[in-house]
Amino acid sequence: MPIIFADRLRGEYILTSDQSRISITKIHHWLSTEAYWALGRSREEVVASIEHSNLYAVVTADGQTVACARMITDQLTFGWVGDVFVDGEHRGRGLATWMVGEIVDYWIGAGVRRVLLATRDAHEVYARVGFSALAQPELFMEIDRRSAG
């Protein structure tokens, strides 16, 4: 069950983990059709990924979901930030930096000591939050069962 944290406000935007304000339809559309890492992800997979995340947060404006991100963590040693997405009409306003920064600050404040994420093209966005390249990338390995296409 996801953690609920208090809403955060920034101008017209609200960052919330209130599950009743999450538009599954919009998030599924973004991830399955626009997010290079999740193309083709089924609605059921999106729902399950939200349900199994420790924290799922969205940014809303005028009651509409405009951005999302999630955190998976053991709540002590490690966390993974994933599925960060900002609607095209709201990009360039610092929402991803704000949203990820708040999520990371929440978990680091709760004691998590290491947080990772992966990005193909937004390194500067996450550097503003404190992320840097892996000090020893040769230590990391993966199993990737996603289709290559």
Structural shape: globular
**What percentage of amino acids are in beta strands?**
15-25%
Mean of residue pLDDT values: 93
For the biggest sheet, the summary is: 6 strands, mixed
What are the main properties of this structure?
6-stranded mixed β-sheet, alpha+beta, Aminopeptidase, 149 residues, single chain, 23% strand
Describe this structure as you would to a colleague.
There is one protein chain. The chain is α+β, with helices and mostly antiparallel strands and 149 residues long. It has a single domain (8-139), classed as Gcn5-related N-acetyltransferase (GNAT) (Aminopeptidase), CATH 3.40.630. It has helices at residues 24-33, 43-51, 95-109, 123-127, and strands at residues 8-10, 13-16, 55-61, 64-73, 79-86, 115-116. Strands 1-2-3-4-5-6 form a six-stranded mixed β-sheet. The model has no long low-confidence stretch (mean pLDDT 93).
Short description:
With 149 residues, the chain is an alpha+beta fold. The protein has helices at residues 24-33, 43-51, 95-109, 123-127, and strands at residues 8-10, 13-16, 55-61, 64-73, 79-86, 115-116.
